[in-house]
Write a structure and sequence with these properties.
31% of the residues lie in helices and 18% in strands. The protein has helices at 11-23, 107-119, 144-157, 171-177, 191-197, 214-226, 254-259, 270-274, 277-289, 316-329, and strands spanning 2-5, 27-32, 37-42, 59-63, 83-85, 88-90, 96-100, 124-126, 160-165, 180-183, 204-207, 232-236, 266-268, 294-298. Helix 4 links the parallel strand 9 and strand 10. The structure holds phosphoenolpyruvate and manganese (II) ion.
Length: 337
């Protein structure tokens, strides 16, 4: 349910409504818009009807939200969410680009990648601080030294850091360094991790699970929002289909489908979404044309020696070429880069 407060309501009336909601067993999420104050009610609507609130002073209307997600819903918040990461504004007119290697490998590698993506115009650096995680024998250990390297890269280049957290036990350490905390496709339905990320102060970047529906994907965001962190970015990264030419099929439908019902910024990762470097540019352009708010692109100084994802990583000069093409395309769809 959404409680819409009347224009000119008093603070006292607002407090009374929130108190009453809490008494009825709901959590109240307040949004003070330019014109309106609205309250999102989170709780078991089937058990306790909130219609009683309609009689209270200062309340204009109670609107049921039909979707299972509430705080992520455009019914609850009409304006699109924008998120500031340093001087980068995500979700506005400008398309934000997050670029970098799959994982931090060495000081030389990460600094070379950082300098290359910065020179091409990216303002956010991506890199994972775990060793490769696809096999129990190569381990998925969190490496604090790699995280410290990312901290140095930020200090020396000014790039903002996007890095993934795999497990609740590492969240605090990762969040202490990362400007944006990434939750990967394989953790898209790790509800304890999502909840914990909801207590963070910084933006959370959730990648779509390769077999989650769009609704389940938005529900992942709802977990974070419901804990009070309203800075959530969603990233489409390809889903599993019967198609075998590429490891995943990049579901660009997700962009307009999500944006039609959810106010959060939507990114696309054409690197994981295609698995092949020659497809990254075309799909990045398609994503921008379809209305994405940003891109995550893998770039490695030497893809042929990359520890992970070399086949989908762009060389620095290829990334610069993709950025140049995107800069030409963006104005045609009312965006900048
Ligand atoms: C990544 O971005 O490094 C990654 C592992 O992606 P995904 O979680 O989408 O597979
Ligand atoms: Mn990767």
């Amino acid at each position: 349910m959404i409680i819409v407060m009347a224009v000119g309501h008093t603070e006292e009336q607002l407090r009374a409504v929130v108190d009453r909601m809490q008494l009825l067993g709901y959590r109240a999420h307040l949004i003070r818009g330019v014109e309106r104050t609205v309250i999102g009610a989170v709780g078991h609507e089937d058990k306790t009807p909130l219609a009683v609130l309609e009689q209270m002073q200062g309340v204009e209307a109670i609107i049921p939200v039909m979707k299972p997600f509430k705080l992520a819903s455009s019914e609850w918040k009409k304006q699109r969410t924008t998120i500031e990461v340093g001087d980068v504004r995500i979700g506005g007119e400008a398309i934000a680009v997050i670029a970098g290697p799959g994982v931090v490998e060495s000081e030389e590698q990460i600094f070379a990648a950082a300098r290359a993506v910065k020179a091409a115009g990216a303002k956010l650096l991506r890199a994972c601080v775990y060793s490769y995680y696809m096999s129990p024998y190569t381990a998925a250990e969190f490496d604090p030294e790699k995280l410290a390297l990312l901290g140095r890269v930020r200090d020396e280049t000014g790039l903002r850091i996007v890095t993934e957290v795999f497990s609740t036990k590492d969240l605090e350490a990762i969040a202490a360094c990362a400007d944006v905390v990434q939750i990967g496709a394989r953790n898209c339905q790790n509800f304890s991790l999502l909840r914990l990320a909801g207590r963070l102060r910084q933006p959370v970047f959730i990648k779509r699970g390769m077999s989650t529906t769009i609704r389940e994907f938005i529900m992942a965001a709802e977990y974070v929002l419901s804990e009070g962190n309203l800075q959530v970015i969603l990233c489409e990264r390809g889903i599993r289909t019967f198609e075998s030419e590429t490891p995943f099929s990049l579901d660009l439908n997700a962009i307009p489908v999500i944006k039609g019902q959810c106010h959060l910024p939507v990114f696309v990762d054409p690197s994981h979404g295609t698995g092949r470097r020659n497809l990254v540019g075309p799909m990045a352009r398609a994503a921008v044309a379809a209305g994405c708010d940003g891109l995550m692109i893998e770039v490695h100084p030497h893809p042929e020696t990359a520890l992970v994802d070399g086949a989908q990583s762009l060389r620095p000069e290829q990334f610069a070429g993709v950025m140049k093409e995107l800069r030409r395309l963006a104005p045609a769809v009312g965006r900048t880069l």
